Amino acid sequence: MSESSYLCSGPAWDAGGAVLRLQAPDGTQHPLRLDAGTELRFRIQPGAPRYCLGYDQVQETGRVSHPCPAQAPAERGYQCGRCFARDESRLVHNSHRGGPLPAGLRNYLARPQWLYIATFADGTTKVGTAADQRRILRLTEQGALAAQYVARAVDGLRVRVLEDALSSGLGLTQAVRAGAKCASLAAPLPAAAITDINTGHAEAARALLFTLDPAGFEVVKDSWSRPAAFDAVLEQHGAGIYPLPLTTGEHGLLIRGMLGSTALVAAGDAELCFLADLTQLKGRRLELGRFSSTLPALQEPLF
Predict the structure, then answer these.
(1) Which domain of life does the UniProt lineage start with (predicted)?
(2) Does residue 213 lie in a domain region?
(3) Chunked in runs of 10, what are the mean pLDDT values of the chain (303 residues)?
(4) Rounded Cα distance, 41 and 47, in Å
(5) Residue 144 burial (CB < 10 Å; 0-12/13-18/19+)?
(6) First to last CA, the chain
(7) What pTM was estimated for this model as a whole?
(8) Dihedral over Cα of 228, 119, 199, 126: its sign
(9) Containing domain of residue 154, as a range?
(10) Residue 158 falls within a domain, yes or no?
């Protein structure tokens, strides 16, 4: 592994904006800010596997991440078998269905949680949960274009019971693939239509919640405002999907904007703008350097 090789944990958001989480061979973290104007130039060796990103322990204040001791190839998702067995965060989603839980996870789940309804660029709508202290950033990282909070629960166990109830009762999904979110931004619905879709689902969710046992939660009507940083992506009409797989080869990208995990990038001599799903980099080793994208011949649309 070269000294310029970094293991990528994928994109994330903090109070300062979007970052690409990178880890050096010695385990130190080197987050790369994805502000407009940032150059992201890297190479991934052909045939290179996806690598383990380690495991999480959950404490009352949140998750504590530990790198994979062996820096091994991933076997299950983004983890090797050993790290998968030690990971506590995977227990969160089924915590309300019974079974023993680590003490730190129990304390984390004892804190208030929010239930939200989020709608994406093509109108796809999901129900989800967010910890009290991360409810804003959670929806920003999700890449929602419209969202409303519909309930505040006393703890993480109750909120997940409510999430299941809305999912089954209203037919709402609990997960939307990052690739689908990226693709939908190439031809988004009008903003007013997205708002109307979200409002309709949120009102239906509240109506259903009012029929449930009220113990442990309150129904709320609270809207989330998408960050102004999303505008750079939404205002770039006609951008297509980046035509090269990010999981192999050389790439030279100039960040123009970020929306969730989707980057608006310029690439090639003509600096054409594309939409790139940066979650493709998760678990990959990136060799940073003066690399560039060799784009295939692109045909302009006739209409």
Answers:
(1) Bacteria
(2) yes
(3) 80 95 88 96 95 86 83 93 87 59 70 95 97 91 97 92 96 96 96 98 98 96 94 93 96 97 88 93 96 80 42
(4) 19
(5) buried
(6) 47
(7) 0.91
(8) negative
(9) 111-226
(10) yes
The first and second tokens of residue 220, run together, are: 């709320």
Place of tokens 């045909």: 299
Q: Count of residues for the chain?
A: 303
**CA nearest neighbour of 186 among 68, 275, 297:** 275
87 located within any domain: no
Total domain count, the chain = 1
* Residue 273 in domain: no
Q: Copy the structure tokens of residue 59.
A: 């404490």
Q: What is the 3-state secondary structure (H, E, C) of the chain?
A: CCCCEEEEEEEEEECCEEEEEEECCCCCECCEECCCCCEEEEEECCCCCCECCCEEEEECCEEEEECCCCCCECCECCECHHHHHHCCHHHHHHHHHCCCCCHHHHHHHCCCEEEEEEECCCCCEEEEEEEHHHHHHHHHHHCCCEEEEEEEECCHHHHHHHHHHHHHHHCCECCCCHHHHHHHCCCCCCHHHHHHHHHHHHHHHHHHHCCCCCCCEEEEEEEECCCHHHHHHHCCCCCEECCCCCCCEEEEEEEEEEECCEEEEEECCCCEEEEEEHHHHCCCEEEECCCCCCCCCCCCCCC
Long-range CB pairs of 17-26 (<8 Å, 24+ gap) are 17/229, 17/258, 18/229, 18/258, 20/278, 20/281, 22/286, 23/67, 25/1
